[in-house]
């Protein structure tokens, strides 16, 4: 398995971690009866850590499909280079750091880390179309 695909697999695990943390924190705040219900009733927005974990999950889900596509594109065209490895590594590492930063409500640094993950995706896309990019 290539490094890029390994980072994709690790990111899938990270996605599940996001889902579990967000859902359990929502259940702690709203109660497990709510979790087991049809959830038809209006509920107030989640607050505190539960709200931040919900927003972190939503943020992850916004970028993850683009990362998946970029990794598969690099793999499909056979352009797995140092640039694509950096891109995949940056994305996964930054998303891994982003989760606790968001959960603990750390401002500014969290946004900087988000940008590092974004750069990772850009590097993957550059590698897919320009494998001989001088770097």
TrEMBL record:
Q: Which Pfam families match?
A: MAPEG
* Primary location class: membrane
Localization in the cell = Membrane
Q: What is the superkingdom listed in this entry's lineage?
A: Bacteria
Residue ranges crossing the lipid bilayer per the database entry: 56-76, 88-106, 112-130
What keywords appear on the UniProt entry?
Answer: Membrane, Transmembrane, Transmembrane helix
- Its recorded name reads MAPEG superfamily protein
Species name: Mesorhizobium shonense
């Amino acid at each position: 398995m290539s490094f890029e695909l390994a980072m994709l697999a690790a990111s899938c695990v990270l996605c599940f971690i996001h889902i579990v943390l967000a859902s359990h924190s929502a259940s702690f705040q709203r109660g497990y009866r709510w979790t087991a219900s049809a959830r038809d009733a209006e509920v107030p927005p989640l607050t505190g850590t539960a709200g931040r974990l919900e927003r972190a999950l939503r943020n992850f889900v916004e970028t993850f499909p683009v990362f998946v596509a970029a990794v598969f594109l690099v793999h499909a065209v056979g352009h797995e280079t140092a640039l694509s490895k950096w891109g995949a590594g940056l994305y996964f590492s930054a998303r891994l750091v982003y989760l606790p930063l968001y959960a603990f409500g750390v401002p500014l640094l969290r946004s900087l880390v988000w940008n590092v993950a974004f750069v990772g995706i850009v590097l993957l896309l550059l590698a897919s179309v320009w494998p001989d990019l001088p770097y």
